[in-house]
Each structure stands twice: as C-alpha cells, then as structure tokens.
Specification:
By secondary structure, the protein is α+β, with helices and mostly antiparallel strands. It has helices at 46-51, 164-188, 192-225, 344-352, and strands spanning 7-9, 15-17, 94-97, 101-105, 111-113, 150-151, 158-159, 239-248, 263-274, 289-299, 302-306, 312-315, 323-326, 330-335, 362-370, 374-384, 387-391, 397-398, 411-412, 415-419. 17% of the residues lie in helices and 25% in strands.
Length: 430
C-alpha cells in the first residue's frame, strides 16, 4: 500500500495536503523610549546627529513600566549590531570636513561654514540674531550691547565754528574801544561817546546770545527745509537727505524702561531737580535747575525705504559711528514732592543700575524710533558691490547764514537723524 499523504484543515475550513507549518518564534524587537520634541536642536535629533558625528543628549527617563522594564538602561541591539553605546550631551559642536573647513550646526539646525558664534558682531566675537547680546550684566535686567551698537555717551554738539584769530581780534577791538571811550568820556566829560560805543557793542552781544539760544532750533529748521534727494539718481559721495520708513537691521533695540521692541534708536535719561540746598546730579549741575544723573542712548544699523524712489538703503550708524539724533523724548516717570510713591518697575530700573531711590525730585524721559516710523536721514551716499549705503560725513555740516532769522552758520558733526512721528501714534507695520 502506498503511504497516505497527510493533510490538515486551515482556519477557513479548507483541507490542504501536507503537515501544518510550525510557527516560528518571533525575534525580540528593539524597544526604545519615546523621543521628545527636539525643537531643531541637532544634539537631540538621533539620525542627524549620527550622520554628523554629533553626540546626542539622552532625554530625561520617564518612570519605567512593567512592559519596558527589561529594555530600559542600555539600548538592546539586534544579533548583527555592535556593542551599545551610550551618548552624552558633551562634545564639540563642529567637525572637520575634507577640504571645506569646519562645519557648524546652529541651534536651529541650519548648517553653516565656520564655527558656532563666528562673525564680527557680539560681545565675545560671535554673531547674534536676537535684539540683545546676552552677557552677565544683561541677566540682571540691564541691556548690554556689543560693539555693533553705537553708545551715544555725549550730547549732540551744535556750535559755531569761528577761528580763534577772529575771536581774539574781536575781543581786542572791544577792549580798546572801551578804554578809548572811557578816556574820552573823562577827558571831554560827555557821555555821548560812551553811548555811541554801547550802541555798537550791545547789538553784537545780543546777536551772540540769540544764536546760543536758538541755534538748535535753527538747525532743525535747516534740516526740515533741506530738499529730499532721490536715491535712484544719487552718485557716490553725494551729501543727501532721505525721508522714508525705517526697518531694523540685524540687531533690533529695545527701550530700557517701557520695553518697546524692535527699535533702531533708544534713549533713557534720568533727571533730578536741585534746589538751594539739594544734591547735585552731576558736577556741572547748578541750583534751581534740572540736571542729568544717568543716560542711556543706543543706535544700530538700520534700513530706510526712500519715499522718492522706493529704493532701500542701509544706514550705517553702528560700530561707533558719529550720529546726531534729534528725537524729542517723553516723560514716563515724574516724581514730585506730592508724589513720592515709586512704582515697582521704576524701583527695579533704579536697582539694576545701582541708583539710589531716596527723597529726590526725579524725572525719567524716554525716546525711541520704532520700526515703521518715518524718519529723515542726512548723510553721504556710498555704493559698494550693488549695496546702497548712507554713512556719516567726515566733515561737520554747516547750515550757512540764515539772515532772516539772524542766525550765524551752525555746525554739527555726524549723521543727522530726525523723527517727527509721535511716539504714541501708530506706525506703519512692516
């Protein structure tokens, strides 16, 4: 008799020939813990870190459950894998590439050439994209900027450029005229000569006093009346005035007290009033007047979009450039004799700058140029590699004689920056 061919029944009820197939044991699979969101950090992303030989950071272990307790600790590997390696968060952030220099991974995951933090901007030589370059002092609440932001420690100098020879000649003539007038008055015994001499000297003194009081206003009037230039036809080295909307550069600024973000210019000044027997805010503070006790003024590179041609130019006001800003600040804190209660914000602002908060009559003023404001800039045009820039002039700018206003030529150094927008008004969104 022939051997009977074995058969078996499937789960569907169908009979097939052959013995039933023995189920093989499943190989143990590798289990891993859930990986949290990395936020673009290459140290926390597994595969990207392995490709670039960047050590990873082991996420915080959660409480092990009964099903994954056997696989916790070191990573279980398959039969063909090598020994398990535990990765740590330490190690270099860049690796050498053959013939291409160092490759750096930024915190956003972007691969750039050069080490992390390279560039000319920054306190420690690194480039920052945020509004502040963080240092030890900035953690306490005071903004500390690097060399890319210009700190304006001095007031805008508006004066009259007259040679010393002319001044000495004028003083000698006045002195001799007085001596001759007094001698003739004593000899002739008539006051007509002294009156004639006074009629000549008094108008000169009044003219000088008038110019000292209204010289700044005359300069602002000169800037306002100066015609706007069209950047499209401006040549290299031409002195122009450009009016348009500003946008922030690589480092936007923030006001010190009100924390107004995305500014191109900020100023915060603390004034104190000195009575007959009060304390002086500075060595030059006189009685019965307001004196500056503390001042912060910063300006950085920004862009301006010309209203005339629509072109966009880079205004170079950073890296220690000479800038003459004419921005009227507003009073944000006013401490009088009747109001001695200081707000917590003002007390914190004083503490960050190590200023005393005793019984003094104080006034805090703050000014800024926010992104989207309309400003006027007066400087020299520079064209370099298809980049249009406005830089400060090397020589002081003169307003010329304003005969109808009885004003002598006024000089100011640096790039002139004015803003006529009200700081409380809405600006153009950009």
């Amino acid at each position: 008799m022939g051997t009977r061919i074995p058969s078996h029944q499937l789960s569907s009820g169908l009979y097939v020939s052959g013995r039933p197939e023995q189920l093989k044991e499943r190989q143990p699979t590798m289990t891993s813990r859930s990986v949290p969101y990395t936020g673009g950090d290459p140290k926390k992303s597994g595969e990207l870190g392995k490709m670039l030989d960047i050590p990873g950071v082991d996420p915080k272990p959660s409480r092990p459950s009964s099903s994954s307790q056997h696989n916790s600790g070191s990573v279980r590997s398959g039969p063909n894998s090598g020994p398990a390696v535990r990765l740590s968060g330490s190690g270099p952030m860049s690796r050498k590439s053959s013939g291409s220099g160092p490759i750096a991974l930024q915190p956003t995951g972007l691969i750039t050439s050069g080490p992390v933090g390279s560039g000319p901007i920054g306190v420690s030589g690194g480039r920052r994209s945020g509004p502040l370059e963080q240092t030890g002092a900035s953690a306490a609440g005071k903004a500390v900027y690097g060399s890319s932001v210009t700190s304006l420690s001095e007031e805008v100098k508006v004066g009259f450029r007259v040679s010393r020879a002319v001044v000495w000649v004028f003083l000698v003539v006045v002195a001799m005229s007085l001596l001759v007038g007094v001698f003739l008055m004593v000899a002739v015994k008539k006051a007509v000569i002294l009156l004639a001499l006074g009629a000549i000297i008094v108008p000169v003194v009044i003219l000088i006093t008038w110019n000292c009081l209204w010289g700044r206003q005359g300069l602002l009037g000169f800037v306002k009346r100066y015609p706007d230039a069209e950047l499209r036809g401006a040549i290299d080295g031409q002195y122009v005035k450009v009016t348009g909307v500003v946008t922030c550069g690589s480092i936007p600024l923030e006001s010190s007290y009100q924390r107004v973000p995305r500014c191109v210019y900020v100023s915060t000044e603390l004034y104190e009033y000195k009575g007959l027997g009060g304390k002086s805010a500075n060595p030059k503070h006189r009685c019965l007047s307001w004196g500056s006790r503390y001042s912060e003024k910063y300006v950085a590179d920004f862009y301006i979009s010309d209203f005339q041609s629509g072109l966009r130019a880079l205004v170079k006001t950073g890296y220690g450039a000479k800038v003459a800003p004419f921005v009227e600040p507003t009073t944000v804190v006013d401490v009088t004799k009747d109001n001695r209660e200081l707000s917590p914000n003002f007390l914190g602002w004083l503490a960050d700058r190590k200023l005393s908060s005793d019984n003094r009559t104080m006034r805090l003023k703050e000014g800024y140029i926010k992104e989207g404001s309309t400003v006027s800039v007066m400087g020299v045009v520079r064209r370099h590699d298809n980049v249009l820039m406005i830089v400060p002039p090397t020589d002081p700018v003169s307003t010329g004689c304003q005969w109808f206003r009885c004003l002598l030529p006024t000089y100011v150094e640096g790039l002139i920056l004015t803003c006529e927008d009200n700081q409380n008004a809405d600006v153009i969104p950009v």
